[in-house]
Write a structure and sequence with these properties.
Elements: H1 4-27, H2 36-40, H3 46-52
């Protein structure tokens, strides 16, 4: 029974820390854009990878559009 006096305050402290962490993250804008990071993983960037390793794809560098 005496372990309850340790576990209950410890559980309250952990829950309070979680609420504080969530509030801090929400105020700093961590949950503003939930769609873009997930969509970023779906974009095909083979052209950047191929040009980064010195390999050429089907077109030449003159035919590719300029990247800013």
């Amino acid at each position: 029974m005496s372990v309850v006096f340790i576990v209950v305050p410890l559980a309250i402290l952990v829950a309070l820390a979680a609420v504080i962490a969530y509030t801090w993250a929400a105020r700093r804008g961590q949950f503003d854009d939930l769609v873009t990071p997930a969509m970023r993983a779906l974009h095909d960037d083979t052209e950047e990878v191929a040009s980064g390793h010195g390999e050429e794809t089907a077109g030449t560098k003159e035919e590719r559009p300029a990247v800013d």
